[in-house]
Write a structure and sequence with these properties.
Blueprint lengths: L3 E10 L2 E10 L2 E6 L8 E4 L4 E4 L1 E7 L3 E2 L2 E2 L8 H6 L2 E8 L7 H15 L3 E7 L5 H6 L1 H6 L4 E5 L10 H14 L2 E5 L3 H13 L5 H7 L2 H18 L2 E4 L5 H12 L4 E6 H5 L22 H12 L5 E3 L2 E2 L3 H5 L18 H10 L5 H15 L17 E9 L20 E9 L2 E5 L2 E2 L18
Parallel strand pairs: 1-4, 1-5, 6-9, 6-16, 9-10, 10-11, 11-12, 12-13, 13-14, 14-15
Antiparallel strand pairs: 1-2, 2-3, 5-17, 7-8, 17-18, 18-19, 19-20
Helix pairs in contact: 5-8, 6-7, 8-9, 9-11
Bound molecules: N-(aminocarbonyl)-beta-alanine and zinc ion (2 copies).
The site of one zinc ion (ZN) has 3 residues, from loops.
């Protein structure tokens, strides 16, 4: 009944790390035994290796248009790198294009994903400024089609962002439908005032971008939306929290008894704002911006005390030409950085330095997103009955963080040490990556409906 046994790895189970055999059959984990206990025709000798649950990246933007810019990758060229980096499920954002509603954007993205994705996938619906009322009215139908989360932006009011009054309406509808609301939390008026100040002072380079988007703007939006969510009885998840003040606002909301979750991203934990002093500082322009070392320390503390639930990427795959075209005016540089492949290898470095353990890594990149987005325990854990989404890591082998398979020509993480290497990635019992070779097929990724699936 077993097709394959992965033998003798340090296996990261929900209950802790143990040397074990993992038996796979029919795409699922069928058995977990002591090293040497399980037999199958195909045995992978995994001694000296670590076996993690396939990582979930719930914050990626593939083939996405932001104003005049379109990201360089699609559901194929974006998910092959995900597999190289040990990510076996992604959740993308169906952001309506001009003329679209939440539903038509969702249908477009679902089709693109079906045709291209090599890892499993889901979509967050998005309610944006245009067609706001129509999109809001479409939420029940989208929920019936398996959507479990909806995203709103309090920033970018001139394009896709919503007012706090509109966000309150979304929260009320979402609470009625048991939808999780993801929030890009930066108060737009404060950001616009920050931009105006930098422009007036002639600071139009990457430093101006960082200075224009204050931690106070993040804190203000988190406080406001957390308050609105409490009144509405809605569940919220603040995405890409980047600052000490933002983390503190999340912590306070939790202390007040509110149902609040929070994500930070790998760039905010490992990079600091000195990147904006480089000649090519535009490569790191993202919103919120990468902040100072003291913020970085506060984010690690927020991970340690459980304020943050997840570490994602906010993957936006622009290339250096796109980033450089308007480098002298930060307002015109496309926002966002690529990371879907490098998140896990960067995080392996934190195990070497003792900031994370294999168990906490599995919790932050697999278990927590699976629980938040209702994929647990089908996804996000190594357990009998779960999908055999598995990542075999050689903890002693290096990963070159200056290059990747992503559809771009630069790496934001180029200066970091890469300790630990993804050797094999398995999706539902089939190998996607085997020793630096992609061995999967276009379109093998499946829509994960977001239904709670019980381990049989
Ligand atoms: O800079 C970023 N993060 N751009 C992508 C859109 C978003 O805000 O998530
Ligand atoms: Zn955002
Ligand atoms: Zn994003």
């Amino acid at each position: 009944m077993l097709d394959t046994v992965i033998r003798g790895s340090l296996t990261i189970l929900p209950t802790g790390a143990v040397p074990a055999d993992v038996g796979i059959g029919a795409g699922r984990i069928q058995a977990i035994g002591a090293p040497g206990e399980l037999e199958a025709s195909n045995v992978v000798d995994a001694a000296q290796h670590v076996l993690l649950p396939g990582a979930i990246d719930p914050h990626v933007h593939l083939n996405t248009r932001f104003g005049e810019w379109v990201t360089r990758d699609d559901f194929y060229t974006g998910t092959v790198p995900a597999a190289f980096g040990g990510t076996t499920t992604i959740i993308d954002f169906a952001i309506p294009l001009p003329g679209e509603t939440a539903r038509s954007a969702f249908e477009r993205c679902q089709k693109e994903a079906r045709d291209g994705a090599v890892v499993d996938y889901a979509l967050h619906g998005c309610i944006t400024r245009e067609a706001f009322s129509e999109s809001l009215a479409e939420l029940p139908e989208l929920r019936a089609r398996g959507m479990r989360s909806v995203k709103v932006f309090s920033a970018y009011r001139s394009t896709i962002g919503l007012s706090f009054e509109q966000i309150e309406q979304v929260l009320r509808r979402a609470a009625d439908m048991d939808l999780l609301v993801l929030v890009h939390a930066e108060t737009d008026e404060m950001i616009e005032a920050g931009i105006a100040k930098e422009v007036a002072a002639g600071r139009l380079g990457p430093r101006g971008h960082a200075a224009s988007r204050s931690a106070a703007a993040e804190q203000d939006a988190i406080r406001k939306v957390a308050g609105l969510a409490a009144k509405a009885g809605a569940k919220v998840l603040f995405v890409h929290v980047s600052s000490a003040e933002g983390a503190e606002a999340v912590r306070q909301a939790r202390l007040d008894g509110q149902s609040v979750q929070a994500e930070t991203c790998v760039q905010y934990l490992f990079l600091d704002d000195e990147v904006y002093d480089r000649a090519d500082g535009q490569l790191w322009i993202c919103s919120p911006p990468i902040r100072s070392r003291s913020h970085q320390q506060a984010l690690w503390s927020a991970l340690d005390d459980g304020t943050f639930d997840l570490i994602s990427t906010d993957h936006n795959c622009f290339d250096s030409r796109q980033k450089a075209l308007h480098r002298d005016d930060f307002r015109r540089v496309p926002n966002g950085i690529p990371g879907v492949e490098l998140r896990m290898p960067v995080l392996f470095g934190a195990i070497q330095t003792g900031r994370l353990t294999w168990e906490s890594l599995a919790r932050l990149t697999a278990e927590a997103p699976a629980r938040s987005f209702r994929l647990w325990p089908r996804k996000g854990c190594i357990a009998v009955g779960s999908d055999a989404d598995l990542v075999l890591v050689d903890p002693t082998a290096p990963t070159d963080l200056s290059s990747s398979h992503m559809a771009t020509d630069y790496s934001p993480f180029t200066l970091l040490p890469g300790n630990g290497h993804v050797v094999q990635t398995w999706l539902r019992g089939s190998r996607l990556v085997d020793r630096d070779r992609f061995v999967g097929e276009r379109g093998v990724g499946e829509w994960v409906h977001g239904e709670r699936s019980e381990v049989p």
